Amino acid sequence: MSEFITQVNPRLKGIKLQFCPYRGLIISSPKKLSNRKLAQLCLQHKHWIEQQRQKHNGKNTHLETTLNLLALEKSYSIQTHIDNNKLTLSDETISIMGENEAQQIDLLKKWIRKQAIQFYQQRIDFWSQKTGLFFKKLSVRSQKSRWGSCSSNGTISLNDQLLFMPSTVLDYIIVHELCHTVEANHSLKYWQCVENHYPNYQHQEQLLSQSVKLIPDWFRASLYT
User: Fold this and answer.
1) Looking at the domain 66-220, which fold is it?
2) Which of 64, 69, 104, 214 could pair with 96 in a Cys bridge, judged by C-beta atoms 3.0 to 4.6 Å apart?
3) Domain spans of the chain, in order of start
4) pLDDT tens-digit readout, 176-185
5) Is the model's pLDDT at 47 over the cut of 60?
């Protein structure tokens, strides 16, 4: 039987299989599954599991010694220790203590999320005042390729991975979503709104595509389609 981690989540409507390079196969279900059922699932999805393993074999999903947050124009050195879960920052050095690398990565991702929330709030407040386009609240999430969204009630969600990209890309995504508060679709009127407030937006779209490679594999490893 393949190695795997089981998780029970009563909110799930069915069984969910995920593959995380630094944790392996994760099987989530509304209630605890029997060993027989788990074995059947592994057998049933063995080709998909093998594909996922091969897909991530060539990627460096281990923590690196340097963390570059381009949007903040900051670079940190990373030190890891096997100990109880804790993250500390001293000058430009981040010390991460965890029982294993997976826990250390989780701690670092939570810290990065906090930096993103603080910085994104500053930028979206700036652009909201500058453009006169207003939103209800800001949400920061981790998603594989959706960089931002705007709900019908004016809640704007931004991807924390934008912190690894130039700040101009983040600003463009913010303006992009703020324009959705007045134009829900991508009509000609919508793009006129974007261009009025961010004239070089097309260059930023190109830069966004080029900047995806700046996001570390270890950060993206737990994101699923």
Assistant:
1) Zincin-like (3.30.2010)
2) 104
3) 4-57, 66-220
4) 999 999 999 9
5) yes
